[in-house]
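@channel anyone free to eyeball this complex?
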Amino acid sequence: MSDSPAVMHAETADSHHEHPAYQRHHFESVAQQFDATNFAMWLFLLTEVMFFGGLFTAYLIMRNWYYPAFVEASHQLNIGWGTANTGVLILSSFTMAMGVYNAHMRRKSGLVLCLILTFILGLGFLGIKSIEYTEKYEKHHIPGFHYSMSSFLNPASDPEVHNSYPDDKPLGLDMARHTELYFFLYFAMTGMHALHMIIGIAILGYLIVRAQAGDFTTGHITYIENFGLYWHFVDIIWIFLFPLLYLISRH
Amino acid sequence: MSDLKEMEEQENHIVSPMIYLAILGALLVGTGLTVWASFIDLGEWHIAPGLTVFWNPVIALAIACSKAVLVVLFFMHVKYSTKLTKLTVMSGFFLFLVLIGMTLTDYFSRAWGRW
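replying in thread with the prediction:
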């Protein structure tokens, strides 16, 4: 079952069984180690689901309470950038899945190429996100002392958005105040997601170096497989963030 | 030792690139579909006074859930993993739905009929 080239000696077989260097000694086999780490990774990801779930729940409740504010505030987001980012992230999930495949097939150059592509696509996602954040900064839509409600008190003062959504009525002061809540949740959710991306990209950098050294193409695939799970999980979060933040307030 | 045999099969199970490509295609189509659907007013369904279902968010979330299921099953290999992993993932998401569902029904029904 193990692909270890080592020979078992009869006198040491009971006390010490030979195994590949990447198999920890307390596991019976590489397969058992794989299943155990895979299981642990899923437990971690489920805690992450609960963590993001709290943010999603807060968003849904606040959206229900301050519906007009959330609708008009979400009209500030650019669906073009959001769609592009969704495409970039799905593509990066595909290259990551192909990386896992290459690790299984023990193809070093393929694995390194896939990891580098995933790395670049991840940076591309953050680049697009930073364009969007910059726009929010320029319009004073970042919650805090400098937050500006003018786009919502007087939609005509924001011609770019007003032309796309001519039906948006000016909000009363009390409702307009709650647009800040939308942007607070927008930055909390996309910011937390972006933080996960940054952590993922940092780990990817480490994995690329190790993969280049040939560490993951000798049958040792647990790191690549479990990092893949993390990366796909971050993709799933975005799959829900995109419709909730960008799309559902158009009608 | 059927467990051991099962584990061995799992370790050797390698998802083919064609499946990954098909999932990539499905995910991109789903993204296009959800953006397209958001530009159309899908209307609403008045079940009872004060109880209305708006189709746009329902459709958007249905597409998002389908995409997430594809990612979990194929990219994250749950379809090919052990029963333990399958059960853990399913119970985790089930617990998540209970938590979010109970919270939302509470919040949405507190002021029922008083708006």
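from a first look: The mean pLDDT of chain B is 86.
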